[in-house]
Amino acid sequence: MTRRILLLFVLAMFAALRGTASACAVCMGDPNSDMARASNAALWTLLALVGFIFLSTGATAYYLWRHGKLSRKA
């Protein structure tokens, strides 16, 4: 019962404190601004880094799989 009252209180506080949100220049401004270009460059760099890590992991797994199938010479 006390949890419900606490939850209702927290929800009421969030509803009472609701205000307007302000967006940064990237989200709500000039798409050709320096900040927007820097954010796009950062996102593409991180995407390329994650792709490189995935490809490297896949290549390592493929290398280990191929060499694990080779017959061992005594």
Structure description:
This protein has 74 residues and is mainly α. It has a domain at 24-74. It has helices spanning 2-16, 25-28, 34-69. The longest helix is centred in the C-terminal third of the chain and has 36 residues, at 34-69. It is flat.
Primary descriptors:
mainly alpha, flat, 74 residues, single chain
Counted beta strands: 0
Q: What kind of assembly state do the chains in view correspond to?
A: single chain
Shape descriptor reads flat
Q: Bin the helical content.
A: over 70%
Q: Round the Cα radius of gyration to an integer and report it.
A: 26 Å
Q: Roughly how many Å apart are the termini?
A: 73 Å
Order of helices and strands: HHH
SSE blueprint:
Elements: H1 2-16, H2 25-28, H3 34-69
State the gist of this model.
This protein is mainly alpha-helical and 74 residues long.
